[in-house]
Amino acid sequence: MTPEAFKDAALALPAATHVVQWGGADVFKVGGKIFAVLGLGGAFSIKVSDIAYEALTESGAARPAPYLARAKWVAFDDLDGLDAAEVAGWLANAHALVAAKLTRAVKRELGL
């Protein structure tokens, strides 16, 4: 998957927004809450479910994300070689997990 495809997949999700912060990282949010971060060089971090966290970290496919592991975030070192459909699915899941925690008022405002 390319960084451009990652950005397109993240922004295709309902009410997703994009900002550049932390020294050039692409940060994707829903309702002001982060669901994915794409760093320079293709490294990225995403929010995952408890089960996905265990599966991805124990298999070695991903590692606990620095500073965010306690909130069940995982980090991947590179987009190259990853299946685009699989990454898009992870993004959709990350978006859904974060959107589910938004207040009813925010969900209604965003049309979620």
Could you characterize what this model shows?
The protein is α+β, with helices and mostly antiparallel strands and 112 residues long. 38% of the residues lie in helices and 25% in strands. The protein has four helices and six strands, in the order αββββαββαα. It has a six-stranded antiparallel beta sheet with strand order 1-2-3-4-6-5. α1 (3-11) packs parallel to α3 (84-100).
| Morphology | globular
What characterizes the major β-sheet? 6 strands, antiparallel
Q: Please work out how many helical segments DSSP would assign.
A: 4
Overall mean pLDDT score?
Answer: 91
Short synopsis of the structure:
This protein is an alpha+beta fold. The protein contains four helices and six strands; from the N terminus they run H-E-E-E-E-H-E-E-H-H.
Q: Which helices and strands appear, and what pairs or packs with what?
A:
Blueprint lengths: L2 H9 L4 E6 L3 E6 L2 E6 L5 E4 L2 H10 L3 E2 L8 E4 L7 H17 L3 H7 L2
Antiparallel strand pairs: 1-2, 2-3, 3-4, 4-6, 5-6
Helix pairs in contact: 1-3
